[in-house]
Amino acid sequence: MTTAPLLEATGVAKNYGAVAALKNASLTLLPGEVHALMGANGAGKSTLVKILTGAIRNDGGRITVRGRPYVARTPADARRSGLVSVYQEPSLIPDLDVISNLRLTQTPVEPFREWVRELGVPDLDLRDLARDVPLAIQRVLDLARALAIAPDVMLLDEMTAALPANLAERVIDVVKRQSQTGRSVIFISHRFVEIAALCDRATVLRDGETVGVVDIAPGVEERIVELMLGAKIEKARRTRRDAGETAARAQGDTRIAVRNLRVGTKLQDVSFDLRNGEVAGVVALEGQGQDELFAALAGSTRPAAGTIEVDGRAARFAHPVDAVREGIAYVPGDRSEALAMKQSVRENIALPFSAAFASWGPINRRREGAKVQAAIERLQIDTRAQREVQRLSGGNQQKVTIARWIAADARTILCFDPTRGIDVRTKREIYKLLRELADQGKSILFYTSELEEIQLVCDRAIVIFGGKVVDILPVEIADEPALTRAAYGLPRETGAEPGIPTGGAQQGEAAP
Amino acid sequence: MSISASAPASVPAGRRIRRFMSDYPLVPLVVLLLLLVLVLHILQPGIVNQRWIANTVKFAIPLALLAGCQTMTMLTGGIDLSVGTVATMAAFIVATQGVDNPPAVAMALALIPALLIGFANGIGVGVFRVHPLIMTLGTSLIGVGCLQVYQRTVIASGAKVPEFLTWLGTGLTWGFPNALLLFIPVAALLIFIQRRTGFGRLLYAVGDNERATRLAGVKYWQVILALYIFSSVLAGIMGLLYIGLIKAPSLSLAEPLVLPSVAAAVIGGTSIFGGRGGYTGTILGALILAVLTTLLTILQMPEGARRILFGAIVLLVTAAYLRIIEDR
Amino acid sequence: MSRFLRRHGWVVGLSALFVVLFVATRIIQPGYGAGDFGSLVRAVLPYAFAVAAQTVVVIAGGIDLSVAAMMAFTSVTAASMMAGASEEYAIFVVPLVLALGFVLGAVNGILIVVTRVPDIVVTLATLFILQGAALLVLDAPGGGVAEWLKGLIIGTVPIPGLPDAVTAWFPKALLLLVVLLCAVWIPLKRSRLGLSIYAIGSSELAAFRSGVPVARTKILAYAIAGLFAAMGGLSLTMSTGIGAPIPGPYLLASVAAVVLGGVALGGGRGGLLGPIIAVFVLRLVRTDLTLLAIDPNVTAIVEGSIMVAVVMFGAYVTIRSRAS
Q1: How many CA atoms does the CB half-sphere of C252 hold within 13 Å?
Q2: CATH architecture of B48-171+184-324
Q3: Which CATH number fits domain A7-230: 3.40.50.300, 3.40.50.450, 3.30.160.40, 3.40.50.11030?
Q4: What gap in Å lies between CA B200 and CA A347, rounded to an integer?
Q5: Which of A166, A425, B106, C43 is the most buried (most CB within 10 A)?
Q6: B-interface mutation test, from C120, C130, C308, most B Cβ less than 10 A away
Q7: Which residue is closest to A298 within chain B, CA to CA?
Q8: Which CATH class is domain A241-327+411-510?
Q9: What is the mean pLDDT of residues B72-87?
């Protein structure tokens, strides 16, 4: 390379307890380039960004800026070294007006104003409170604030997500021109279209390691997808299941019908059916609205529009108890959300039994014990440390969250990434259990960030991108490469029709 | 973390002690209690005799009852600072109504304000989500105002503590305080509720992880409303017992016991953050405080120093609790 | 204009409420005059400082339960130091007591930051400790105060060129209150520290990302609250001439006035003016009830109920705004 790199990170590692979030990440940023940072969910992108911006400290590796060692203890530190980040969620203080936000970060006002105009927001009043500024504009202001101090390196995390098309164009335009002045940009995005339009090179992370650096050129999407998946492509082809078997299975009645559901700002318009006796997989990159979808089905968030029908009747959930009464149980991805950590296994499993006012009286120890025991045995929970759930391993904790609803005999289980961060054996047990439950006629909605699980567990895969269902893949073609392409909004490989599929809910069923 | 209990040998010693402390929180409390008694015995030989023990227990019981209110509310991460006012109101009303009414009627009347204040607390905390500390402080202020108004209406009629209550509060039978006749069933009930009823289980679960209970279908406000009514009624009953012990009604009768009641529950191992603890520990905590009070009296410590000590205990125990037991 | 109303509408409405109450007072008691207003302001003084203390902490996203105890402690410290001492000695006592308040407030903040125990528990414990400390300094109401300090809040401000009938409505106590609050609040509001206090209350994460030193800001917010509480303690001593070791009803009153004054209990929103006007409103309600010849104890009940209702309303608004 002819030019000296502006920023160079080698062998960066970060551990959270025993879990390695980053193992060996490296990144070389040349002056004046726009560099894409890519990777599947959990590959370590956000960890690397946090390290570069001083939100967390790395455990290993070396980072230099202009050849000098670089350590950032706080975001303010990083800013002084010329590194500024624009985060996914706006970081303006909501209760301060814009001008105070500028003063707080010691941002010069005039350049900021110019950048705001440049970015296509002509009529901004600096005395407006940040909370009164629309979310999309807040992101633009964040960007303008970063641009105004003319940093050497800008980190843009999903900058264009949630921006209307015209603003997104201006942003891309401005970022591109910015790079022509010799400053560099690290650009994180799930949208290949933008990356192709904007970036010079891309670094691909997989499982906490840098697995490749590619130059952006036409057709590079395939190469990037390959790098993100690694050896998994071959493996995936081998684990394809017999199509006939699954086709026979998904024939139950419709249990939950979701129509044009809109929740919060992320979930735009989603329709699908969940049938009795099936495991329906949900596949989405981070932040495409899947959290909102599950929250709405579980009754913890009220949808802004659309309907949910349960067994053919319209359902309105004001409180999770309404969903529970319909036999819909929610197993959240974060176990600390579902478990009373300081209580015993038994108390956690039996928690729904005592929920209703009528069951506040003395507990029938024998009857409860029998139910709990049956659930424990069915899930093979290791009960040696049962006095407090927080002492169990992650896998056993997850089993407890599921066991609770098996003991309560829920008819539908909404599993949100239940296998995240747990050991392989437990994962297999959970797959087996979910399949068994479906075979008994229960219905399961299963979101997973580990795409290989779709073919191991599900009957079909509902793919959500940008808050909409973009494809529904039958399990026989839902291997990792296909799912990854779909999740990034790319068309099906064999479908041959160009452009992004427009997301008719049922259209996927007909393919190959 | 792997399956942690499977390999006890690999767990470091510090962690093992923490485990032990959180599994058997009563052992260090009993040791502390015996230690304090020993110190007392050394400072003033001969003070520890059957009469002293009966007397200490007699004064520890009202404290333990109020601390029962704190234990129950603290299990959910709350606190009830209105118990002092509620107890005082009950005591004052029973003493003044006892003049014209039969004791049973007076006692029933005395518990009405307890119910009302408990209801208001429950609505404020459970429905409006006011912080329990602020809410109970507020209702306690209103309660004091009501009591002052009430006092003016009955000022002429004098006071008469029902004999049954004096017998219960001060009497001894075979060397045992009669108050135990009330206390043992109440304590048993509290422990039974905490360990063996659906309601008790919800108290722990709500305090441990409110979100999780919500997902399991629990309605928070129902639990909280029932809890604060229960706590208030218990405080009212304590007021009845206390007037039997003190015999002289006043407008700030039980107020000085509020702070020690919080301290007793905290010392007894009930977490102020909710989800952990139990009434057995609180009883020991109340006994420890009763002995400590004797000790401070012997050392001629002023009231101010005692408050400082109680405040420091609450802070230190809570901070230590965060460090030691919740350390992961 | 519309933005001014939107942002300050609450304060404007509250001021209107105050005026309405004031007119009502004149109707109930046509003789209500400048002298009565002066005593109202004197009665408001300790409340106003307690509210100022609470406001700073609440804006920073916390709560300080030790306000009233801190006032009692600083009050008895000042009273016992000045008892029997010379007039000049008080010149040293005042800054010392203010510094004491600042340091004790900072200790609150440090305990919260270092122990990671929630603010409500830490300040509850310091409430007990300060109560005890106050009792150690003076076990019964007593002590004394320098005459010139007393004089600071008695009488009216003579403004040259204005007739006495007008200056009679400018009690010295009001001047003292305004000067002291402005001396702390205006520089604070204009400094980066002031912005940081709003920032950590509004969103701790966004504040951290904006480069705000969160821990230091929190400690300073509690320290400033301590300073205001010390002013409150001094004003107690000045108006009563003694120090009382038992804390007055300032804690709940301060929380209620903060909420009524338009400061969100979650933090980040509101200013000092609203809560101060709210204190005047709450005191004036009390005056009116007294003038209506309602039993003072009933007044206490009404007052308590208003405060609880206000706090419940504030909590309700907080849940609603979080839900949307």
Answers
A1: 27
A2: Orthogonal Bundle (1.10)
A3: 3.40.50.300
A4: 11
A5: B106
A6: C308
A7: B215
A8: alpha beta
A9: 92
